[in-house]
Amino acid sequence: GTYVLRETICSDDWQMNTETYTVKVDLNGNVTVEGYNAPEPDEETGRFIVTDKPRVHGDLTFEKRDSVSNVLLDGVVFRLSGTSEYGTDVLMYVPSEKGRVTFANVEMGIYELAEAQTIDGYIRNTDVWTMVIDANGNAALYETDGNGNITGEVGRSRDYFYQVCNEPLHSFNFVKSSTYGTGIYVGGVEFTLTGISDYGTEVNQTAVSLPADDFGLVTFDGLE
Question: In percent, how much of the chain has pLDDT > 90?
Fold first, then answer.
């Protein structure tokens, strides 16, 4: 009969053979294999040898932290994109869990890493980093300038993980008091806060002072 032979599963350390071979078995049990780069039978054993090429891969783990308090952050999503040295298109999304982000089993190559989504109360980090998996499977994370040129390796935390931070949204408050004596507070007074943040966000907020029992407190929050 005539059959089709394909490799369907391969271990992480090898590149999958993507060729398709035609296998023919004649009436006498003789086997031939046909196709592009079809294997020839070994002279001693008669076995056909289908080869795979080595596949170098590595893992990158880094920490996601608050830039002010240094606490670990969960739920921040990162995107890794690029093409490996083997021609494989890579597009991976991974959220931080217990403050850690791991891109696993990434083939040798140079990739772009960016923050795709942040969490409530934080400003999305718009930096773009370069991730490199070298020929030995080692992973490294680098900072880049506005033109994508590598400027240096990303800093590490005390436990030696790369560390990427998010700036939290800020708030400030003050009290509305009377000029007719100390300790006299005024509620129901409205204030507006307008302007443009350093990130280009227009701000137009309104806040009203709390009652005198709450010291006439006025709070503006969610500020970049």
Answer: 83
